[in-house]
Structure formats: structure tokens, C-alpha cells
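This is your field. Have a critical look at both lines of this record:
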Amino acid sequence: MIEAEQIVSEGTRLQPFILTGYHGAPTHGTVTIQAFDREQRWRRALAGLGKWWGVALLSVLIPVAHFLLVPSFFVYGVWQFFQRLGTIELAARARGTCPDCGAEQVLELAPRWRAPQPVTCRHCHRGLRLALLDPR
């Protein structure tokens, strides 16, 4: 078990957390967090914008549906741009044990890293709360 945050590589760290449920003792888990500096955020944002505007350009070739697809992909590209530009930390590979059923599993987290956050057990389908360890 990891008691404190560990640096895995530049911009990536392993963060321990606690999972609490309806009953049972809280359990521990870890999540890999990718941090982005200003330049990386701009690069990701422009890549997302370019990807969806490219899809919008290609959807011009689809008869009738292009009246809906082109503006939708255009707006979605702008939305992705601002989402990626504002994402400082991205959570990936979260793993923990459900305090209610005891199943060890990969957890699905919100794309932007925040704690506490709600998660759901894949086995018993109960709501869990992911929180950071108390720094004592």
C-alpha cells in the first residue's frame, strides 16, 4: 500500500486514496495522475479542436445529414478546446477495493482529477466516495 504520493515520471504521479461505502471499513487504492503544463494544455486543446473540425469538414460530404453534423462537430470542437485547455490534471488507471463487497477493480473516474468524487463499484453497483488520505 502506498502511504504518500509518488512521482512515476515527469508530469505523472501515483496518488493514494481512500474508498468509503455504506458499510465496512474504508479501503485504499491508487490512481495515476497526469499533470499538464501550459504548453501541453495548449497542444492538447489545439489537437482536439483540429480533430473535430476535421471531422466537421469530412461530414460536408454526407448528403442531408451535413446540415446537422457540420455545425455540431464545429461546436463540439470548440467545447473540446476549452475543456482540454482547462484540464490541468487528468486521472488515469485508478484501482481500488470496494469496501462493501471486497472486489478489487479498476475504477471509472471523471476525466478531470478532483477529490473527493463519487465512483460506482462494478460488482455490487453501490455508490462509493473516493477521497484523499488525511495528511497527518
User: Anything to note?
Assistant: The mean pLDDT is 89.
